[in-house]
Amino acid sequence: MLRSFGLFTVLLMVLEWTSPGLPSPLWPICDLRALDHFIKKAQEAESAMRSCKEECSLAEPFTVPQPSVDFNAWRRKNAQQQAQEVQSGLWLLSQALRSLKSSISNTMLHSHIDNNLGNIISIGQVLRSLSLPEYSPSEAGPTVQDTWRVSSASALFQVHFNFLRGKVRLLISHAPICQQAIS
Amino acid sequence: MTNVSLTRVLAFCTLLCISNYSFVMCSRELQTKVNMLLQDEEENPKCFLKGTVKIFCFWERGEDNGTTDPYTFRYTYEQEDTTVCPVEVLSSEGGRRLYSCENFQVIFYVPLYIEVLRDEQLIHNRTLFTDQIFLLDPPSNLTLNRTAKPGQLKVTWLPPYFIDNGLLYEISYSVTGSQKGKREEVRIKTDLLLQGLQPGVSYSVRARVRPQSSGFSGWWSAWTDPVSMEMPYETDPLILSMSIIISLILLLLSLTILLTHRRFLLKKLWPVIPSPEGKFPDLFSVYKGNFQEWMNHGNGGMRWIPAYYYTEEPVAPLEVLSEINRGPPLPSRMSAHTHRDPQAAGALGAQQQREEAVPEVDRGSPSAWSAVQHEAWMLERMRNLHPTPISQSSLLESHDVYVALNQSLPKPQDKEEAEERRDGGGSGQEDILEESVPLQTLFAGSGTRSSASHSDLGSLQQSSGRLSSQSSFEYPNQTWPPNGPSYTYMAVADSGVSVDYSPMSSGQLTKTERRPKPRVIYTNEYKNDLALIHKYKHWQLSGQPTDSAC
C-alpha cells in the first residue's frame, strides 16, 4: 500500500516537473479573428457601461495601461519589451475589472465584466502560443511605465477596448512566428 | 497720384489677408483626396491621415456672408491637453472655400475629440480614432509586363508608405475606352498576373489601395493613372513549328498513299466501262451498231467465242438441251431427202409431208418455242437427278441417229401419232440415237470444236435472232422438269432442216432392215462419232457453230 502510494507520488512529481505551467497550444494562433471577437466584446461592454452613471462611478480611480501607441517609439522596442508592456497592461486591466466587479451590483454588468475577464485569460493563451516571453508580475505590482488613471467604468472599458485593438493586436500581428507563417 | 493710392490699397488688402489666413495651394494628390472625402464623408470636420503621422481636417464655410471667417479648430486626445490648430483657407475646385487644420499630432488607439468654433461658437465637433481614418496615396510605379505566355500581363506596383505591409490592393483592368472591366484584389503582394487577355486588344490597368490589417481602417485611395498596353499577336513558336511538321508529314503520307494506290483509286473513282467495240469487229465502224446486219455479214455469222462474251462475269455452265421427241422419231429421215435413197422416198411420202410441216408451225409459234425450251431443261434436270440415264446400249440400239433442229415438242395430236407409229413400227426405242446423250455444254470451255455440234446460220435468220437447239433425242420415259428463272441454258436455233444420218453400224443396219417397219436406206454414209461423244458426255460447246455435216 505504501509502496503504491510512493510510486503515485513520484509520478505526480514527474508530471509536475515536465509541465510546470499551463499547457500551451501546439500550434501558434496567428489568426486575429479571435482577438477581433474579444475587441468587439470590449466595445459592447463600454457601450453598456455608458448607461450606468452613478452606480458605475468609482470611489477610487483605477490604474490602467496607456492605450495610445506612438509608432516610432513602438518600433524602437524589441519583442520582449513589447510583450512585457502588453502582458503588464493586461494584468492591470484584469485587476481593474475585478475591482469594478466588486464595486457594482448590476448582474447584467457583471456578465460583461466576467466575459472580458475570461477574454483576457484567453489572450494570455494566445500570447503563449506565439512563444512570446513570459511575464510574471511581482507582488509589488507590475512596473508599467505609462499608465492612466480612470474613474468610471465606461472609461475603463474604453481603455480596455483600445488597448486590445492597439498594442495587443500590434504585438500578435507582428509576432515573429506569425511573420514566418505568412512568408 | 492715382496709381500710387491704388497700389497702397492692394498692398493693404494683401497684408490683411495674409495676417488672417494663409492660403494653401492644393497639390494634385491633396485635391483628389479632398474631393473624394467631400463625396464619401458626411460628418464635419472631415479628417484623414496624411501618411501616418499627420492629420488633415477640413470643413466647408457656412453661411457667414462672405466676410471674415473667425474659425477656431481645437482637438483633444484622451488623457491629454487640448490643443488649438491654426486654420488655413484651402482653395478648392468649383469655387468652394475650405478651411483646414493640418499636421497635428497623431496618437493611435486613443479617442480624439475635435471642435470647430466660429466666433467662439461651436459649429462642428466629433470624436474619432486616428487608426480608422487612413486615406493612403495610390500605389506608385504601376507597370505592365508581357509574359512568355500569350494572353497574360504581369502588373507590378510599389506600395505607398504605411505602418506595415498589411495593405489591400485592388487592380482594375479593362479594354481601353471601355467602361466595363474586371477587378481583382491582392493582399500584401505587389504584383498580379492578368490572364485570359485577348490578343490585339489594348488594356488599361489601374490600382488603388487601403489598409487591411493590424486593425487599421480607412478609405480606398484614389486610382492610379491608367496604364495601357496592347496585347501582341503572339504564337508559340514551338506549337507553330510542330504544326508545320505534322502538316508536312500528313501531306507526304497522303501523297505516298495516292501514288501507291493510284490505279486502285482511279479504278474506284472512274471505273473502266467495257467497250464492245473490240469484241465485235466492224460492228460499230462498218455496221454502225446494227447487230443484225453485222451478224448477217459477219465471217460465217456470229463467232461463238465464249471469251468474247461475259468477260467480266464469272463462268457459268450453259447447257444446250436436247429436245425430247415423243412424236414421230424420224422427221429428218424424210426431210433429208437430198441425201436419201430414192427408193425410200416413195414409201415415206405421206409422213414426209407431215413432218416437214411441223417445223413450219413451230417457228411461227413463240409459245411453243419456249415450251420446248422448258421441257428440254426439265429433261436435263431429270437426267441429273437420276444418275443412271438411258443406257448406252439402248441408245446405241436406235437405228436412226439424227439431229432435228428447231423441232418442237409434239403436240397432243403428235403424241398420238407418235404412239401409233411406235406401236406400229416398234421402232421407238430403236430410233433413239446415241446422240441423244445430253449435250451439256460449258460456256467457258476449252474452245475445242465438236463435230457433233451442228447449227445453221440459216435457222438463225429465220428465227429472228432467237437461238434454239433442239435435238431429236427421245426420252420416252422422262418428263421435262420446269426450269427456274435462274437456270442458265442455251437455246440453239436450228435451221429446220432435218438431217438424216446413216446407220451407225452395219449390224444395226441389218437389224433394222429385218424389221417390218419401213426402213430407211441412207445414201450417204454417216460416220458416226458417237463414240467420241460418249467419251465426253459433258462436252463443251466449242464456240463457233459449224455448218451442218451435210
Automatic annotation (TrEMBL), chain A:
InterPro entries given in the database record: 4_helix_cytokine-like_core, EPO_TPO, Erythroptn
GO biological process, one term: erythrocyte maturation
Any GO CC annotation of this UniProt entry: extracellular region
GO molecular function: hormone activity
Keyword set, alphabetical order: Disulfide bond, Erythrocyte maturation, Hormone, Secreted, Signal
Subcellular locations according to the entry: Secreted
Keyword presence, Signal: yes
Similarity remark: Belongs to the EPO/TPO family.
Domain of life: Eukaryota
Disulfide bridge partners, by residue number: 30-178, 52-56
Signal peptide: 1-23
Stated role: Erythropoietin is the principal hormone involved in the regulation of erythrocyte differentiation and the maintenance of a physiological level of circulating erythrocyte mass.
Protein name: Erythropoietin
Pfam families documented for this protein: EPO_TPO
UniProtKB/TrEMBL annotation, chain B:
Bias kind Low complexity: ranges: 343-352, 453-472
SUPFAM superfamilies associated with the record: Fibronectin type III (SSF49265)
Disulfide bond annotation, renumbered to this chain: 47-57
Domain called Fibronectin type-III: residue spans: 138-232
Pfam families named in the record: EpoR_lig-bind (PF09067), fn3 (PF00041)
Record's signal peptide: 1-26
Membrane topology, from the record: Single-pass type I membrane protein
Bilayer-spanning residue ranges: 238-259
Main location: membrane
Record's subcellular location: Cell membrane
Any one Gene Ontology cellular component term annotated for this protein: plasma membrane
Residue ranges, compositional bias (Basic and acidic residues): 353-363, 412-424
Residue numbers spanned by region Disordered: 327-366, 407-480
Single Gene Ontology BP annotation: cytokine-mediated signaling pathway
Keyword annotations of the record: Cell membrane, Disulfide bond, Glycoprotein, Membrane, Receptor, Signal, Transmembrane, Transmembrane helix
Family to which this protein belongs: Belongs to the type I cytokine receptor family. Type 1 subfamily.
Identification of the protein by name: Erythropoietin receptor
Species this protein is from: Coilia grayii
